[in-house]
Amino acid sequence: MAIILVRAASPGLSDGAVGHHQVHGSLQGSSQLLKTRVPPRRWMLCSLRYACLGLQPGEEVGRTSAVYSSLAVNPAGEAVVSSEQKVYDVVLKQAALLKRQLRTPPVLDVRPQQLDMPRSGLKEAYARCGEICQEYAKTFYLGTMLMTEERRRAIWAIYVWCRRTDELVDGPNANYITPTALDRWEKRLEDLFAGRPYDMLDAALSDTISRFPIDIQPFRDMIEGMRSDLRKARYKNFDELYMYCYYVAGTVGLMSVPVMGIAPESKATTESVYSAALALGIANQLTNILRDVGEDARRGRVYLPQDELAQAGLSDEDIFYGVVTNRWRNFMKQQIKRARMFFEEAERGVTELSQASRWPVWASLLLYRQILDEIEANDYNNFTRRAYVGKGKKLLALPVAYGKSLLLPVSLRNSQT
Ligand SMILES: CC(C)=CCC/C(C)=C/CC/C(C)=C/CC/C(C)=C/[C@@H]1[C@@H](COP(=O)(O)OP(=O)(O)O)[C@]1(C)CC/C=C(\C)CC/C=C(\C)CCC=C(C)C
Ligand SMILES: [Mn+2]
């Protein structure tokens, strides 16, 4: 497969690439097609990847490394759309939907009172979602405690649906889960979106989607991620891993934006806020993967890109063997660097969220990112030591997050200078 790197206009980014479309390789003749397909933010997403390998933007990489490609051609000479492009199309669609729904008075399929559940039942359902969130994810729970009541309940309901979806493939009954079971779970999702929840936890989510302009696609896509977990335990390159991270985690960002809300004074585009939310999900999942290398290997799973492992002179055997060598340290440094870049991209969007949502999102971003620091502090031993952020550091993150949440949206700061 020949690789082509594309440079695209990227408003608001100061990397000197603004206004250029530069196509290398055998798609030269189809640059018109590329111009129309390349989203405005492509340059930055590409540069996240270049930076990790020290590649220069626009530089052509070898024939076998699809990692740093944004567009490629297959042996038949057809353009292959990268994962980032596919995901960016979802971002655009979600942003357009949100803008439309916020403009028009809500004509919702489900109103709270239509749910076949008394108000007291709903209260109990949300409370149970809160308990589950607290039990499984203390950090997220801490974040939600900084939210307004309505948003907090909504995030709990979303959290519980995500957790249950993940448990299907990761929980105690995972061995019995088949693609058909996931199809049934998707049918159940459609029903709850249509106001026909199967149980009280679903009812909480049905209620949530009647209150916030949330679309079904990220939920469907998360189920798709679980399907891929059933059939796949290796990722050829970062392009494949990126798609997986979108499915299981980027989707959470997309589900959350309509609940978090965008600051009325923000001058940022809705797309850019969704992109930042997506980046936070990807950053979190990359961090998860780096923290859990040993644990995943013991379940026969290696999420790290196979070609990057090979380039670093490493293989699955090194991971199963689990000895921290200099090769491993260097490899990990690059992986951590990339995860931090996604966190940085996310940071730009947090300031655009509505004031009341910024604190919890900052808190969760800072707390999750610290896991990367802990991996470093463990001298990159993520085979047998779990990177863990202690209580003291967690508590310290809260006032820092609060301080950051008071900052003006970046889009306003830029427009005022
Ligand atoms: C503009 C901007 C930055 C907006 C913020 C948008 C936002 C709130 C994004 C949240 C992103 C986020 C929290 C993503 C979750 C990523 C994640 C941890 C995914 C996990 C997947 C599977 O991984 P794995 O099996 O390897 O992990 P385990 O060992 O099983 O843990 C998930 C488990 C998928 C399911 C995800 C969840 C259960 C978490 C859902 C979280 C929320 C809805 C809470 C978001 C709330 C706050 C305050 C950030
Ligand atoms: Mn899991």
TrEMBL record:
Establish whether keyword Transit peptide is in the entry.
yes
Instruction: Enumerate the catalysed reactions.
Output: 2 (2E,6E,10E)-geranylgeranyl diphosphate = 15-cis-phytoene + 2 diphosphate
Molecular function (GO) terms for this protein are: 15-cis-phytoene synthase activity; geranylgeranyl diphosphate synthase activity; squalene synthase [NAD(P)H] activity
Q: PROSITE patterns annotated for this entry?
A: SQUALEN_PHYTOEN_SYN_1, SQUALEN_PHYTOEN_SYN_2
Q: InterPro entries, alphabetically?
A: Isoprenoid_synthase_dom_sf, Squ/phyt_synthse, Squalene/phytoene_synthase_CS, Trans_IPPS_bact-type, Trans_IPPS_HH
Keywords annotated in UniProt? Carotenoid biosynthesis, Isoprene biosynthesis, Plastid, Transferase, Transit peptide
An example Gene Ontology cellular component term from the record? plastoglobule
What name has this protein been given in UniProt?
A: 15-cis-phytoene synthase
Main location class: plastid
What's its EC?
Answer: 2.5.1.32
Q: Name one GO biological process term.
A: carotenoid biosynthetic process
Can you say where in the cell this protein is located? Plastid, Chloroplast
Q: Which family does it belong to?
A: Belongs to the phytoene/squalene synthase family.
